[in-house]
């Protein structure tokens, strides 16, 4: 009997060892420490109300941050870099409307290096899903003019968006395809795709990847999708809780087109929410909102280590009551404990 049990265990282990191993690297519940406010708007002629939607990578010891700037008149993009978070708030802002990216609505950036082209890609929203490229990350003036991924809003989004907005584009590639995830502020997460060899051209075949028809705020916006090793993926989506505060839910999948299985995805057991975040002193925000993991592997696979998550996020003074675009969003850092 023991011999049979050992044989069955060996067979099962061989069949699913990768799956069990990578899943074991992720806890089923999370705890975080949060910094205070690390990055705030400058007191300059731009007179921005908030800094939002950060995308962050670390290359050769330097952190590179791209973010949205927000005020009542609209959104734009900004870049900064620093080598230590203690210096983050003093890092100069380089406003990207000075580049070929140009003026007008630009928001929610994502930065990565697409190895086949030897180019940095900056993904963002401009009413469409857009990208700019740059051969030299250290030259913020070098970004190209926007190119749209789509001729127009995909039909499936137009049919389901209701009173929402098409927002928060995120690109991730596997060995065969590149996928663009996006949200509609109406309970739907979409996935579009093109072949790896065709990227960035040919984006299409848009489908609903995840949805919640009963509460649109449960699958709201600001998705991140990461490769965590051995064909395992982690999905984060921002929700608006029953108390009106923003937080993140999480899912996992064995492939980018597969079914997403809930990980920590409730208000009582969230990926990141005020109830599982400890602040040093008074909490400066009750919303844990749009952000990104710090990545040291910066290519198109969006690969992150599961050893310790560090998440740069936007938060806001709980007492703030301005219109949404004028809210005083600031950036802080979560460190998994």
From TrEMBL:
It comes from Aspergillus ibericus CBS 121593. Residues 1-17 form the signal peptide. Alpha-L-arabinofuranosidase involved in the hydrolysis of xylan, a major structural heterogeneous polysaccharide found in plant biomass representing the second most abundant polysaccharide in the biosphere, after cellulose. Releases L-arabinose from arabinoxylan. It is found in: Secreted. Its EC number is 3.2.1.55. InterPro entries: GH62_arabinosidase, Glyco_hydro_beta-prop_sf. CDD domains: GH62 (cd08987). Keywords: Glycosidase, Hydrolase, Secreted, Signal. GO terms for biological process: L-arabinose metabolic process; xylan catabolic process. The keyword Electron transport does not apply. One of its GO terms (cellular component) is extracellular region. One of its GO terms (molecular function) is alpha-L-arabinofuranosidase activity. It comes from the Eukaryota. This is Alpha-L-arabinofuranosidase. It catalyses: Hydrolysis of terminal non-reducing alpha-L-arabinofuranoside residues in alpha-L-arabinosides.
């Amino acid at each position: 009997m023991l011999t049979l049990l050992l044989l069955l265990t060996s067979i099962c282990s061989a069949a699913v060892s990768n799956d069990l191993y990578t899943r074991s690297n992720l806890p089923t519940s999370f705890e975080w420490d949060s910094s205070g406010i690390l990055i705030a708007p400058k007191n300059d002629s731009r007179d921005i109300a908030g800094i939002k939607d950060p995308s962050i990578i670390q290359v050769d010891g330097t952190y590179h941050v791209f973010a949205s700037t927000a005020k009542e008149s609209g959104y734009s993009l900004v870049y900064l870099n620093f080598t230590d978070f203690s210096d983050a708030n003093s890092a100069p802002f380089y406003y990207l409307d000075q580049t070929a990216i140009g003026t007008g609505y630009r928001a929610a950036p994502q930065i990565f290096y697409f190895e086949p082209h030897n180019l940095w890609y900056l993904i963002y929203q401009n009413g469409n899903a857009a990208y700019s490229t740059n051969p030299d990350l250290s030259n913020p003036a070098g970004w190209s003019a926007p190119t749209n991924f789509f001729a127009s809003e995909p039909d499936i989004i137009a049919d389901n968006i209701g009173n929402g907005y098409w927002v928060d584009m995120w690109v991730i590639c596997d060995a065969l395809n590149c996928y663009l995830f996006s949200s509609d502020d109406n309970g739907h997460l979409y996935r579009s795709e093109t072949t790896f060899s065709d990227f960035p051209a040919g984006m299409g075949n848009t489908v609903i990847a995840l949805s919640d028809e009963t509460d649109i705020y449960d699958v709201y916006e600001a998705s991140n999708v990461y490769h965590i090793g051995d064909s395992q993926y982690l999905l984060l989506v921002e929700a608006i809780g029953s108390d009106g505060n923003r937080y993140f839910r999480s899912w996992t999948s064995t492939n980018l087109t597969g079914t997403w299985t809930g990980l920590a995805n409730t208000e009582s057991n969230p990926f990141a929410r005020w109830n599982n975040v400890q602040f040093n002193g008074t909490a400066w925000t009750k919303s844990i909102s749009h952000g990104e993991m710090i990545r040291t592997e910066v290519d198109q696979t969006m690969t992150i280590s599961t050893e310790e998550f560090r998440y740069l996020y936007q938060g806001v003074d709980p007492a703030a009551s301005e219109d949404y675009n004028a809210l005083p969003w600031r950036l802080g850092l979560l460190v998994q404990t």
